[in-house]
Amino acid sequence: MALITETQLRTQLVKGLPNPFPVKEEDKLTPAAADFLKDRGIAVVRIASASSADTIILPVNHMTERKLIPVGVSNRHVHLSPEHINSLFGNGYTLTPLRELSQKGQFAARETLTLLGPRGILQHVRILGPPRGASQVEISRTDGYALGVHPPVRLSGDVQGTPGITLIGASGAVVLQEGLILAKNHVHMSPADAQALEVTQGDRLIVQTLGERPLLFADTIVRVSEQFSLDFHIDVDEANAAFLNTGDQVQLIGRNGTIASAERG
């Protein structure tokens, strides 16, 4: 007989825990280990030992299936309107694509800007294209300390009442009166992804990281569009806290304040 502890389960998080989690009939889970699995929406499957004729399987709720979402870490960046591109780089200027982003039609441009705040500057801040209807700057909270500004956490596009910032380009400067935000973490997905994950536009997902420092992101907004690819977007501060990199995965374990749990047999 083996005793399965919470510590043993945590060491396996780096590679990912199977869901359901197999436990031999003769083995025993400590209460802490059982709670650890339950809190992550991971069911327990009792498997037969060599001497047993039958296998006992506990039923699993459909929401406890292993549902993984790729991570995209977003560094500080700027979205510009056509008017502000002209002001910063010259009339008729067109942004030059450097590389494609995970979302269809979007790209990181070769051009960068300097952000000027009340207490400091940030140089070489990447511009993302294509142009938008209104300019917007997304930074991390750490960046805010460097600049001397304290923007709120907002979804992209929700800039009313946010602080402004000065943008300095190759041919001029623009003073934004508003548009500086800390981007709220969110998941882009297509309608097919939403159907597979059983979520809808505006749902607030609970996702669990799988690495050395397991964390829950408990209020991750779903954004659905035919143009979107599945991607969990977080900023650099969030990624560093959770030991996450672009290309890692997180697991969907609940939505709208409820963590999925295994049904007990």
TrEMBL record:
InterPro entries, per database record: PTAC (IPR008300)
Catalytic activity, reaction form: propanoyl-CoA + phosphate = propanoyl phosphate + CoA
Top-level enzyme category: transferase
Domain of life: Bacteria
Keywords: Acyltransferase, Metal-binding, Transferase, Zinc
Enzyme Commission identifier(s): 2.3.1.222
GO molecular function: acyltransferase activity, transferring groups other than amino-acyl groups; metal ion binding
PANTHER family assigned: PHOSPHATE PROPANOYLTRANSFERASE
Protein name: Phosphate propanoyltransferase
Organism per entry: Paenibacillus ferrarius
